[in-house]
Amino acid sequence: MRKKITVIGGGNVGATTAQRLAEHGLADVVLVDIIEGVPQGKALDLLEAAPIEGHDFKITGTNGYSETENSDLVIITAGIARKPGMSRDDLIKTNMKIVQDVTREVAKSSPQAILIVVSNPLDAMCHVAYRVSGFDRRRVIGMAGVLDSARFRSFLASELDVSVENIQALVLGGHGDTMVPLPRITTVAGIPITELIPAKRLEEIIDRTRQGGAEIVSLLKTGSAFYAPASAAAQMAEAIIKDRKMILPCSVLLEGEYGINGLFIGVPVKLGVNGVEEIIEIKLTPDEDQALKKSAAAVQGLVDFLNQEEV
Ligand code: APR
């Protein structure tokens, strides 16, 4: 039987994700948004592209949840992007309420689903989805590391003028300024990156990676990145739907791994049909470990803020 994926939020990230899922041949897609007509219109437009793109997947738009029932996978992209004049706290509060509402509905309509969270601030929104859904930690997964690593890989490929496919890289930690790119295990066709790019230049590329989201916002001015985030969410979806056992950096709830307990943070995991099938613990150098702990402290600050709000 065909698999079914629901995408919540039919804005830039959600609609582009729906497009990638169908055009990558993964599943029937249901697109949900609160704005009347928008998910229906975008779904119909995508469906009308199917004869040209050459796929037979159904793409449906809706403002409710009955059409989403028993989805195998649900991708949450609902939320607002930060606007000028809006404080970080306002953004967190607004998106927390949205993610709470949609997760409640998802847990009722698709109790067996795996959740991929995309809404920001990412790691904190994973906590909200985890708590509200009551799902096992293997079934709540945040999209950040795949995107951050893709940004790092694309910058490195441009720098060296080599294929992006030659670059293997891993970015750990929270989805923000404190993320932890790991040059030590970044390679170009198996060659350590540290042998190909001088340390100072590599540091500049790492900084650009950390600011990758902000760079796009400063160019777009009216919104945030969506093509690469949608690609990242679709790759995670493929690993799960096709049970590919891919090792990808994702935000997951750590329970002692990496010396961190009770916090969602980006680490390498194996994704398959059961969701997070394994958390891969790599031995970090003291500097890397310190950077990961610093990143965890930043995420903890947001989670503490959310906990106060909920009381
Ligand atoms: N239920 C369903 N959809 C909702 C809800 C809700 N309760 N609240 C808001 N939405 C929808 C909006 O109507 C809008 O269509 O979420 C969509 C968000 O789309 P955009 O504003 O285009 O934002 P986008 O760029 O897609 O980003 C969405 O993903 O990457 C993150 O930081 C980004 O948190 C943001 C999210």
Task: Give a summary of the structure in a few sentences.
The protein has 311 residues and is an alpha/beta fold.
Topology of helices and strands:
Layout: E1 4-8, H1 12-23, E2 28-32, H2 38-53, E3 59-62, E4 73-76, H3 88-109, E5 114-117, H4 122-133, E6 140-142, H5 145-160, E7 167-168, E8 171-172, E9 180-181, E10 187-188, E11 191-192, H6 199-210, H7 212-220, H8 227-241, E12 246-255, E13 261-272, E14 275-279, H9 286-310
Parallel strand pairs: 1-2, 1-4, 2-3, 4-5, 5-6
Antiparallel strand pairs: 7-10, 8-9, 10-11, 12-13, 13-14
Helix pairs in contact: 1-2, 1-8, 3-4, 4-9, 5-6, 5-8
The structure holds adenosine-5-diphosphoribose (APR).
Adenosine-5-diphosphoribose binds at residues 8-14, 32-35, 77-79, 81, 95, 98, 101-102, 118-120, 223-224, 226, 229.
User: Number of helical segments?
Assistant: 9
Number of spatially distinct domains: 2
For the largest beta-sheet, the strand count, sense and barrel status come to: 6 strands, parallel
> Proportion of β residues?
15-25%
Outline the structure in words.
This protein has helices spanning 12-23, 38-53, 88-109, 122-133, 145-160, 199-210, 212-220, 227-241, 286-310, and strands at 4-8, 28-32, 59-62, 73-76, 114-117, 140-142, 167-168, 171-172, 180-181, 187-188, 191-192, 246-255, 261-272, 275-279. Strand 1 (4-8), helix 1 (12-23) and strand 2 form a beta-alpha-beta unit. Helices cover 45% and strands 20% of the residues. The longest helix is centred in the last third of the chain and has 25 residues, at 286-310. The chain is built from 9 helices and 14 strands. A 6-stranded parallel β-sheet has the order 3-2-1-4-5-6, with helices on both faces. A 3-stranded antiparallel β-sheet has the order 7-10-11, with helices on one face. The N and C termini lie far apart (44 Å). It has 2 domains: 4-142, 3-Layer(aba) Sandwich (Rossmann fold); 145-310, Alpha-Beta Complex (L-2-Hydroxyisocaproate Dehydrogenase, Chain A, domain 2). It has 311 residues and is of the alpha/beta class. Adenosine-5-diphosphoribose binds next to helix 1 and helix 3.
